[in-house]
Fold each of these.
Amino acid sequence: MRGLSFFLFSLLLLFLLVTAFGLFFPSRVTVSRAVDIQASRTTVYELLADPMQWKQWFPGGDSLRLLKAEGQVTGIRTPNGNALLIQSQNDSTILVKGLQAAAVGGDMGFRLIGAQAQEGVTVQWFMNFTFDWYPWERFSSLLLENKFGSFMEQGLKNLQQQAQSAARIN
């Protein structure tokens, strides 16, 4: 009986220690990538603000289902079942809701940086993740950069190629 009590106490102590250590990790993590595109701001904005255009540059987007509401395309459904829907947009930012990695919530968006009159524009793609106090969620934040970074880089590269080829045509 004494050995069982010691074992249970050790497990409790280990759980408290891991939880306390996990609290040193941030509860909100942002993964971000950016690319310079030599095309008009309008061309780039149209590719980002219209989910139908995402099929041209979003990695794997050509096989994704479009989501419609009231006869208008509002987003896409990812292979893991998440619905990415445009939440809000203005002339420099497009916010998308529905991003989830396992049970972790979050959102993503695109920010256009640069003056309207410039011929080039910088596009920043960001993903925000929020975590509860659970240690396994906090420790999973260490993997987000590897999981989403290369995906975002590929998408921005595709966007750059698409926008610059559209700019050459116009």
Amino acid sequence: MEFILLFISAVLINNYILHYFLGICPFLGVSKKIDSAVSMGLAVTFVMTITAVFTWMINHWILIPYNLDYLQIVSFILVIASLVQLVEMFIRKISPPLYQALGIYLPLITTNCAIMGLALLSAMNNYSFAKAVVFGVGSGLGFTLAIVLMAGIREQLDLADVPEPLKGAGIALIVAGIMALAFLGFSGMI
């Protein structure tokens, strides 16, 4: 039951985009089309899950036993950068059209503060290995949910009669704020 609550909390209540406001750059940049939003969300979910595994191992097997806690941020940055490079090479090899569609946003996963936030929050909350993995998967799926919902709304907004001053980033930020308020409603569930 504890794992289910952690998962639901990571997806809906403590959503990295709509609660912590982390990962806004790809959220606004890639959320123009649903197919690229799904691809970006799945790539981020994969990186978040693998990051949760590797940062837990580094933190609990190296940093804490040798009193090197002060190296958390540096070691987590290295792990995240390495993992994103592997994902980027994999996507480039397997699906060149997807690699082209994601464009500059794929390397930006490296600097996505949502992934760094995952590593730091997992360490700060001292999650067990299983909880860290559930938290990583849930956080990634929450990211995916938010970016895909935003992409669906933005595709509909392209067909709507939006006032000229609000077109583009203006209406996207208003929609993001409304989505954040809507997701705030989930906080009363748990």
Amino acid sequence: MNRNGWTTKTWTTKGGEVREGKPFDRSSLRRLLTNPVYIGKVRSGDEVFDGVHEAIVDATTWEAAQALLKSHDGNGVRYSDSSLLKGIIKCGICGASYSPHSSRNGNRRYRYYVCQTAQK
């Protein structure tokens, strides 16, 4: 999506300020892929109801995408309390938070922090 130049929607605030669309990141893409509007439904809180609009994605494709997303979820916990600096250290260039990451070389795991802006 980003390679094609697609962005999130551009919108106008109540005060009249225009907010330009941004490139997609993981969270905006997940929001897009899990939005039931595309299958003709609407969400209200935790409940999903039939909408009055037509679906633009068929149910089979929708279910396959949801299953694929669910298979990649895991338990949502990548790091335990070993990431002591998570949310504390900031990038000296852009001011974004650093997030914990790791890599492996054989049986050895190397843990480090990466600027969230650089990661995106």
Amino acid sequence: MRNTRQAVTASQTCAICERSLLVGERAVRYSPDGESFVDVCPLCQEIALDHGWLKEGSPTTPVVSERRRKRLPGLGSLFESRKPQVERVVDEPILRRLSGPEVAMVEAADLFNESAFRRTIAGIAKSLGSPRASIVPLSGTNSEVVLTVAWDISWYQYRITPDSGQPVKLAERGHEPRELESLFTAWNARLTQDGRIAPDISPV
């Protein structure tokens, strides 16, 4: 196995975005239920606090409304399927009927932008700059879509299945974009200034 410029620690995985922490990254422990503790990477700590998780060593338990506790009962709820409440991620009005694959791309981008992974990618982009991205609907009876985000020294690949209880999952990650199959390197999407993944679709 060849060495890479950035190794990962096998023992620590973020409980929110599920990625392995890079060497030098310091995880902070949070408790979703007030009893057990899990590791949270620096990019996801704000998400943990937003959901009322207790940071290890905190003198008091954060106050979380009963409404929020009912809506977010535990870790699994971070990844529950929700219908996006935002507009479609297309910059210009579409003046034609979208094809089936184009509809799948837009829906996959919407689901990703509503997931916790969006904040992870936006946070990495602040350090590494704007990434290249692709959205590829897979052929077959299921509606699975592969979303790939890549920089020169790192890449992440997500599987998006709209009908699944957990529609967005981190499938693979690596360090060299040349490790990716050519199917996933036809860069047809981008990261917008507000941190969303948007497919490049011609309006006419």
